[in-house]
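<discrete_fold_record>
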Amino acid sequence: MTRLTDSEALELLRSRDLLELGARAHEVRERLVPGSLATFIVDRNINYTNVCVSGCRFCAFHCPPGAPEAYVLAQEEIHAKIQETLDLGGTAIMMQGGLHPDLDVTYFEGLFRSIKERFDITIHSLSAPEIVHIAKVSHLPVEEVLRRLKDAGLDSLPGGGAEILVDRVRRQVAPGKA
């Protein structure tokens, strides 16, 4: 099996042939990880808040600060969700929320430390825009925020959240997002 050319990849994308896409992905997996072993992660998504100042025009999830339905989960609620995850065989949590104007790096340091003190679980959390926002709210460079969150227990970041790659489009549909 050889790597797809750009034109082959585009053709596969346009064909919307899910079975062919799966077959090609399986070939890559076999090349990179020979044998019949395939693994997966059992995780849970926890939305720690729905408060967001980003103003994305496509989002039906967020609430402005102070809205009656706005929330920030208490640590006890997050811990209960993590325990449920572990009880079901989970090994990781993915926490994401909005760009909350009051949650700085110290909030997340405390949260992640409290999780790591109580649970043996992978913390795969916070999108790239959340990290940039936390840095801005904390008046810190992104690199320092990442270092501090890692020291507090953050294991990895998800890849989503910065999916609008064209600056002009991002300014129109998600004006407050990095």
About this structure: The two ends are 38 Å apart (CA to CA). Residues 10 and 63 are 37 Å apart (CA to CA). The chain has a mean pLDDT of 89. The helical segments are 6-15, 18-32, 75-87, 105-118, 128-138, 142-152, 167-173.
